[in-house]
C-alpha cells in the first residue's frame, strides 16, 4: 500500500523537508508521483528509508550512504548484520559512559569514592589501538606527525574523519565478495589510499606493506573484519593491486 510523503514523515518521525531532500539528491525517490504531484512511497521505499536511517544513526554522511546503497553489489541483509554489530558496540560505549555519569553523581554526593581511571571509563578518543605497533614499524617521528595533525583538528573535524574512515570500510565490505581487481574495488581502495595520505605519507610500497599487515597481525584482522568477515584479506589484495598499478 502506497503512502503519501506526509504519512511517511509522521510514521518515521522525520520532517517533510528531509524526505524532499533525499528525493532531490537521488537518495530516496518515491516509486510513484501522482498527476497532482503527490509523492507516493511503496513498502520497498520504506525499507530503503529504514536502511538510510540506520546509516545516519552511525553518522555516515549522505554522500557515502548514496555511494554504498547504489552499488550493484550492495547486500541489504549483510548491511543489517553489520549495522547490528556497530550499534551494539556503540551501545556498549554509551552504557559505559552512563555508568560513569551515575558513579560521578554518587561521588559528588560523597556516597562513593572514584579513582581517576574510573572517572574516564567509556571515553574513547583514539580509535587507533595499535599506536605502539605503528611506532615500532614506522618510527616515532611518523606517528607523532600524524598525531599532531589529528590533535590540531577540532572535535567536529576529528569526528568527520572517523565517520569517513568507517564509511570507506563499510563500502569496501560491500565489495569483498567480488574481485579486488575490479574497477569498483580499485576506486574504493583509492579512497582508502587518499584517506590515509591525509594523515600521513604513504608511498605505494608502504600502502602495499600496510595491507599485508592487516592479514599478518591478528589484531588488525579482528578489528577490520568487524565490518565483514574476510575484509582484511580483500583489502590486502586490493591494496596490492593498486600499489602495483601505481608503480607502472
Automatic annotation (TrEMBL):
The keyword Flavoprotein does not apply. InterPro entries: DNA-bd_dom_put_sf, MerR-type_HTH_dom, MerR_fam, TipA-like_antibiotic-bd, TipAS_dom. Residues 1-71 form the HTH merR-type domain. SUPFAM superfamilies: Antibiotic binding domain of TipA-like multidrug resistance regulators, Putative DNA-binding domain. GO terms for molecular function: DNA binding; DNA-binding transcription factor activity. CDD domains: HTH_TipAL-Mta (cd01106). Signal peptide: none annotated. It comes from the Bacteria. Keywords: Activator, DNA-binding, Transcription, Transcription regulation. SMART domains: HTH_MERR. This is MerR family transcriptional regulator.
Amino acid at each position: 500500500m502506497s503512502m503519501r510523503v506526509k504519512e511517511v514523515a509522521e510514521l518515521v518521525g522525520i520532517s517533510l523537508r528531509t524526505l524532499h531532500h533525499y528525493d532531490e539528491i537521488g537518495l530516496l525517490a518515491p516509486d510513484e508521483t501522482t498527476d497532482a504531484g503527490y509523492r507516493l512511497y511503496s513498502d520497498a521505499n520504506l525499507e530503503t528509508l529504514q536502511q538510510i536511517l540506520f546509516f545516519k544513526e552511525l553518522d555516515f554522511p549522505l554522500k557515502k550512504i548514496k555511494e554504498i546503497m547504489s552499488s550493484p553489489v550492495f547486500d541489504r541483509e549483510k548491511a543489517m548484520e553489520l549495522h547490528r554489530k556497530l550499534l551494539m558496540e556503540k551501545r556498549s560505549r554509551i552504557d559505559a559512559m552512563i555508568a560513569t555519569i551515575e558513579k560521578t553523581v554518587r561521588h559528588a554526593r560523597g556516597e562513593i569514592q572514584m579513582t581517576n581511571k574510573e572517572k574516564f571509563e567509556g571515553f574513547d578518543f583514539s580509535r587507533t589501538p595499535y599506536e605502539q605497533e605503528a611506532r615500532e614499524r614506522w618510527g616515532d617521528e611518523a606517528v607523532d606527525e600524524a598525531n599532531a595533525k589529528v590533535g590540531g583538528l577540532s572535535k567536529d573535524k576529528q569526528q568527520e574523519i572517523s565517520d569517513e574512515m568507517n564509511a570507506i570500510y563499510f563500502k569496501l565490505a560491500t565489495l569483498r565478495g567480488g574481485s579486488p581487481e575490479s574497477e569498483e574495488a580499485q576506486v574504493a581502495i583509492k579512497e582508502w589510499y587518499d584517506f590515509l595520505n591525509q594523515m600521513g605519507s604513504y608511498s605505494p610500497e608502504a600502502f602495499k606493506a600496510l595491507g599485508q599487515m592487516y592479514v599478518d597481525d591478528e589484531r588488525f584482522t579482528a578489528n577490520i573484519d568487524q565490518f565483514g568477515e574476510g575484509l582484511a584479506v580483500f583489502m590486502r589484495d586490493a591494496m596490492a593491486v593498486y600499489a602495483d598499478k601505481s608503480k607502472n
